[in-house]
Amino acid sequence: MREYLKFYIDGQWVDPVEPKTSDVINPATEEPAGRISMGTAADVNKAVAAARKAFPSWSQTSKAERLEVLKSIQAEYARRQPELGEAIMEEMGAPSSLANGFHVGLGAGHLQTAIEVLEKFEFEQARGAHVLRYEPIGVCGLITPWNWPMNQTCVKVFPALATGCTMILKPPQLASLSAHILAEILDAAGVPAGVFNLVQGSGSVIGTVLSKHEDVDMISFTGSEPVGVQIQKDAADTVKRVGLELGGKSPWIVLDDDQLATNVASATAGMMGNSGQTCSAGSRLLVPNSRMAEAIEAATAAANGVSVGDPRGNFAMGPVVSKGQYNVIQEYIQKGLDEGAQLIAGGLGRPEGLDKGWYVKPTVFVGTNDMVIAREEIFGPVLVIIGYDDADQAVEIANDSPFGLGGYVTGSDVELARSIARRMRTGAIWINNGFDFHAPFGGYKRSGNGREWGDYGFHEYLEIKSMIGF
Ligand code: TAP
What we know:
By secondary structure, the chain is α/β, with parallel strands linked by helices. The chain folds into 2 domains: 2-246 and 447-468, Aldehyde Dehydrogenase, Chain A, domain 1; 251-438, Aldehyde Dehydrogenase, Chain A, domain 2. The protein has helices spanning 41-59, 63-92, 96-120, 149-163, 177-188, 203-212, 225-236, 260-272, 292-304, 323-338, 372-375, 391-399, 414-423, 454-459; strands at residues 2-4, 7-9, 12-14, 21-26, 31-37, 124-127, 130-136, 139-143, 166-170, 196-198, 218-222, 241-245, 251-254, 284-288, 342-345, 363-366, 382-388, 403-404, 406-410, 428-431, 444-445, 462-468. It has a 7-stranded mixed sheet with strand order 15-16-17-14-13-19-20, with helices on both faces. The chain is globular.
């Protein structure tokens, strides 16, 4: 079992001010995979003081100096990738191929993107009678969720480093092992003391102290909507910037063409990836009413074809992250049944033969957009198929949601897909499964207010200074 009991503060691995620990449970075995310390306000205060002390020098480093540090992190990250993959598999149950592939790869991708953006980024721009200058905002509190631990952490840490900010990372309790390894990577790569600090513990303690702290200039938060709302309230008295990346109920529109069955199948399998624990998952699948029978057949086969089992084995889907998450998902499946949605795959309980571990059946309902299972984020492998009559109605249903994080359109009529994409009220649209590390990522409506990834991810951490008559 991993014992990660020290915090990383001011370039040192230090004991918590008050010793208190918590186990990190492997959701596949229900046994402890590691143990972390639970920090207090005193630990946060030490970390914030270290970050504040480091800010004057780090914020004045040149692009070349910061690029050198980022490249040194890149070498160290590459060396430790297998350990990161193992930790992610143990802490949140991602199948080995996914943990070592996409999970770890997304972190590496954000690092490479930060390097590419920094190389080209103009921190001063002449604009008419003034020069616009971008300056690091200061000391940042970074609060992250467990569902894509390296992705969510790296998409904050590397832009913050690249722009000259100093920071305190508060990782999720459930997935805190990979964050510890990341801190080891930054330490070994020679990030100057105090620039990056790690304090583990509960969100209600560490996160609240960071959000309210007089000496923290910005909070970047990824997580659930209620916690995002609370953070904004906590941060209000100190007028700090709060970047929020929250939940979603993203629509996936399948167009009416000869690829419909293939596209429904890939959207269904995609929904089950990472056990459905993806903020931008296409959890509402919109298909033409005239082709509903075909869509049901394709989705049922695809969901039943998703193999579920031990993350160390050769399975497409592992468990969900915790007993709590398992129970929430079961309640939503029950709710779907109660409100009359048609269950076409999966359902209540664990998949056959899996009696230990928090495994959920890949589940598909056919329902309507007013059902609870179509309106609330379930954050599990549960898909709702909803019928539409024409493109206008598809857009109307897609936009009829409190959220606005992602959207998807698949089909051979690319012009129609583009016109639908333009009308969807979401921060990102993926047409025919495109992918780009430089595309900004963030939500409309209750999905948040921030934009991460690529150059927009830099702007989260930058102040704007106008120098007039310069
Ligand atoms: P949350 O329960 O919101 O937790 C996220 C982080 O906030 C954790 O580190 C948590 O600490 C901490 N936290 C809890 N209470 C806090 C408080 N009062 N003040 C400050 N921090 C606090 O979310 P989760 O369950 O980890 O993640 C799932 C949610 O994240 C989903 O809604 C999902 O959609 C969303 N998400 C969004 C995105 C984007 S980019 N929009 C990406 C991934 C996930 P603990 O460790 O103590 O829980």
